[in-house]
Write a structure and sequence with these properties.
By secondary structure, the chain is α/β, with parallel strands linked by helices. It has a five-stranded mixed sheet with strand order 1-2-3-4-5, with helices on both faces. It has six helices and five strands.
Length: 286
């Protein structure tokens, strides 16, 4: 019990020095290699920035192509409207032909010659209408071909976007794994010094350990204590709850040892950090 009290007192004194003594804070930062971590994160941020810029260029290019496609669609729509107006004109012509035909029937005996002339005119009109139908059909075929071309372009764009999403996802996974490995190493180095000061001897140190089908980022067993470490870049309340549940499972497997939960992160929110401490979780920030 006395060792725990001494450890708490030592921890408070260290935290006080880190807050109030700049020279001590810089010395600790240099010792744990925090500057190297920041440099690596800066390089990763530059790479992500470059990827975001490449992605923005790609998106702008796609937007330009979409605008071009929309312009073509508008042109096609105008052609459809023109064809529809021509169809209406044809319908009017047909209506007129029907009216002329009715007059032809009524005046058949009196106006044979006139009707023959009108029939010739009507035949010419039918030929003109057929020509217009053929032109409209050719335009429909051209529109259909363009629609097929647009469909191919859209499918290619979708494929490229999916490929880009896959690349970004792989980069995020790689960065996450690298960050987690770095935090685990620095945490273990700090913890070893503390354990040595408390007279604890490390028996086991296991990364990505499993206990009763639960995943533990870093598992450290000493002759007196078991440390269950959860590593997150930016922890949430749910991560604290998950860590507490893992601690309970480990306690059932190590009833004769003290089991301590540790949350190690780089972007700790004040509220989450306070919540973790209230729940008895030790918090390390890197």
């Amino acid at each position: 019990m006395s060792s725990i009290v001494d450890a708490e007192y030592l921890k408070k004194e260290i935290l006080k020095l880190l807050r109030e003594d700049e020279e001590f804070r810089l010395a600790v930062a240099g010792l744990i290699g925090f500057g190297e971590v920041l440099k690596r994160l800066d390089r990763h941020e530059e790479e992500l920035k470059r990827l975001r810029e490449d992605f923005l260029v790609f998106v702008k290019e796609q937007e330009r192509k979409w605008e071009e496609n929309n312009r073509r669609w508008e042109e096609n729509s105008k052609r459809w409207e023109e064809a529809y107006r021509r169809f209406e004109s044809i319908e009017l012509e047909l209506k007129k032909l029907r009216e002329d035909f009715n007059k032809f029937v009524e005046l058949e005996e009196k106006r044979w010659e006139e009707n023959n002339r009108r029939w010739e005119e009507n035949n010419k009109r039918w030929e003109e209408n057929n020509r217009r139908w053929e032109e409209a059909y050719k335009r429909f075929e051209a529109i259909e071909r363009r629609l097929e071309e647009h469909t191919k372009i859209i499918m290619e764009l979708v494929s490229r976007v999916e490929s880009l999403e896959h690349r970004v996802s792989n980069i995020e996974l790689a960065l996450g794994a690298l960050t987690e490995a770095s935090i685990a190493r620095y945490l273990y180095e700090d913890l070893v010094e503390e354990l040595s000061a408390r007279g604890e001897k490390v028996l086991h140190r296991i990364r990505n350990h499993r206990v009763d089908n639960i995943d533990i980022d870093l598992f450290i067993e000493t002759d007196k204590t078991v440390y269950v470490v959860e590593i997150k870049v930016k922890p949430r309340y749910s991560d604290v709850g998950s860590l507490i549940a893992k601690v309970d499972v480990v306690k059932s497997k190590y009833p004769n040892k003290n089991v301590v939960g540790i949350l190690a992160a780089t972007l700790n929110g004040r509220e989450v950090e306070e919540y973790a401490k209230q729940k008895g979780v030790d918090v390390y920030r890197f």
